[in-house]
Each structure stands twice: as C-alpha cells, then as structure tokens.
Amino acid sequence: MLTHDAALEWITRWDRQQEGYLPDREERFTALIDAVEAMGRPDPLVIDLGCGPGSLSARLLERLPKATVISVDADPLLLGLGRAAYPHVRFVSLDLRTPGWTESLSLERPADVAVSTTALHWISGPDLQKMYAELAAALRPGGLLLNGDHMETDDATPAVAHLERAVHSRETERRFAGDRPEDWRQWWDAVAADPAFAELHAARTTAGADHHGSESPLLSAHVDALRDAGFTEIGTLWQRGDNRLLCAVRG
C-alpha cells in the first residue's frame, strides 16, 4: 500500500527532479496562481490539464481553499500518487486527446480557468487543436487558459530563441552547480523499484502512459491552435528564457 506520508515524500522528490529542468518552477507556479486569484472570484472552478501527481492543484487550493479544482491526467501511477497525497483534490483519469473528455468532467457550470504546467507539449499538433477547441467550449466567456511550459520561437525569431535557451541554461547551471537533483528517468526507475507502486506501475505499463519526446514545442503551435479555438487574446504573462506562462482569454 502507498501511504499518505510516503506519497508526499515521492512528490517532494518529483518536485525536486522537475526543478532540475525548471529552476524557476515555483516562481512560475506563483505567477499562475496570482493570475487565477486576480480573476476576482474566491471560488473559481479550475481544470488542471495534465496534472501529474497534483503539485499545481495542491498549491492552488492552499491559496484559494474555496476553489473547485478538477485535476486531469492519463497516467495511472501519477494519479495514484496524487490521490494518496492529496485526498482533498478531485483527480480524474482522462486522455486529453480523446474527443468528449470534457463531458466526463460532469461540470456543474462552465469553468473559470484551465491551468497546465509542463504537460501540453506532449500533445501533437492536430490533437492539440482538437483539445483546445473542446476546452474552449467548457470555459465561460472571458475564462482563461494559463499554460506554463517551455515554448520555443525558432520558427519566427531563431536568434531570440537561441538566447532564450541560453538564459534558461545559465540559470540552471547557477542554481544546481555541483548539486544536480535526480533526473526524470532516475525518478521513474526508483518508482519502478518500490514494491508499493507495483500495481500502479503495472497499470501504467498497460496504459502505455510513458512519453517519448516533445510533440508541440513551438509557441506558434499553441497560439495558432488557441486562436482557431476562439480564444481572442493570447499573450505571455511571465517569462524566464524559454520558460513562459502563456495566457489565453476565451471569447
């Protein structure tokens, strides 16, 4: 059995290995939650897309305890970890690439905001377009998408894109000089070796939940798909190198 305390320890390790790729991860979380809070509603309805073990969802509820957060992911192991650590969060097992996924959320009203961090780049361009179109229908007019991720601009401004990556790389080197945390693969290997995860690991293998590469790394791919889906204002709220928080307003 995966206990509550053990789950929290594993999520602490998850957060640490994620920071190895995103040294400004907590700052980006803070900026995202600031934007949700600035919408002016103490009880927003929030959909967390590709929530993983619930790191963002838990932080949102710490700041906005009256919020309703619906946390969506397709990875059985990460969902099991989140459910054990955060019993107050509603986790839903869904593949965002499957049409009709929003109907399975059983929303009582249109959502105020959808959030995501380091997740949507796994979705290919055509699936991304369909996912954003379906998301737009689930948001209220004026509702937001807040997506924090690495988003490249090589297709439009290659020289700037090179500098953005350099800024990110140098910050990572400064933050972790001589003390790099375990990486993504090492974390997963350690989980696979823990007997407490045997059932969840088997479910993950059956579901084919492992990711291979970044399918939609370009900022333009997200902006174009959001515009086609009916989002009228799209811009960057926060940025450090190529790590940015993209905001889109549903028309």
Automatic annotation (TrEMBL):
Q: Which GO terms describe its biological process?
A: methylation
Q: Which InterPro entries match?
A: Methyltransf_25, SAM-dependent_MTases_sf
**A Gene Ontology molecular function term of the record:** methyltransferase activity
Keywords assigned by UniProt?
Methyltransferase, Transferase
Residue ranges occupied by any Methyltransferase domain in the UniProt entry: 46-143
Q: Which domain of life is it from?
A: Bacteria
What is an example of a Pfam family matching this protein? Methyltransf_25
Q: Does the keyword Methyltransferase apply?
A: yes
Has the keyword Membrane been applied to this entry?
no
Q: Which PANTHER family match?
A: TRANS-ACONITATE 2-METHYLTRANSFERASE (PTHR43861:SF1), TRANS-ACONITATE 2-METHYLTRANSFERASE-RELATED (PTHR43861)
Protein name (Swiss-Prot/TrEMBL): Methyltransferase domain-containing protein
**What's the source species for this entry?**
Streptosporangium subroseum
